[in-house]
Amino acid sequence: MTGNKLRLYLGYWRRQESDVHPGKYHVSLLLTAKKPRNDLPTAKRYHAVNPIDCETKTEIWKFEILQTEARTTKLAGVMLLGKVPPDVTMEGIEEILKKVHVPTPEEAQKINWHCRHWVLEALEGLMVGGVILTPPSSPQEMWNTGRSFVEDKTARVDGYPVQSKWLYTCDMSGKEISSEIRPL
C-alpha cells in the first residue's frame, strides 16, 4: 500500500440478522490504497469479532486486523472517512486501534456490546489521533449516516451487496460520491 495515498473507510458487511447479531451489517474500518485492485489483498480490515471459544463455549470478543481485498462479496457499502494524512503511518493507525477497549465476555453480555461499539470508540480515537480530520458529527452520527446510506442504496435487494456496480460510497455527510472500489 506504499506509494499510493491511503483511504480510510467505515465499511458495512452484510450478515444474517439474529439475536446474537442484531442489524443487517457487521461494521468495521477498511484501510486501502487509492483505486485498489480487487484481485489482490491490498487492504486491511480492522474490527472486533466474537468467535466461540471451543473450551468454554463462550463468545470471546477480540480485535482483529485482517489483510483482505478491498472489495469482498459481503461488502455492501462504505463511508469515506478521508485520505490518511501524509504524516500518519499504517503502524500509527494500528497503534491507535489496538488501544480500543474490547470487553471480557461478562462485560460484553452485561452491556449488550457489539462490533458497532468497538467502531464508535475507534472513530473517537482516530479523531483524537489526527487520522480523521474535521468530522461533521459524532462517531454515533457518522455510523448512523453510513448505515442509512447503505440501507437506502441496497433496499431493493434486502441490504445485500450489488456486486456488478462500483461499491456504494458516501462522504461523512451521507452524500453519495464516486467510488474508487471496483465491481467484482
From TrEMBL:
UniProt cross-references to InterPro entries, sorted A to Z: DUF6914
Domain of life: Eukaryota
Protein name: Uncharacterized protein
Organism: Gymnopilus junonius (Spectacular rustgill mushroom)
Lineage: Eukaryota, Fungi, Dikarya, Basidiomycota, Agaricomycotina
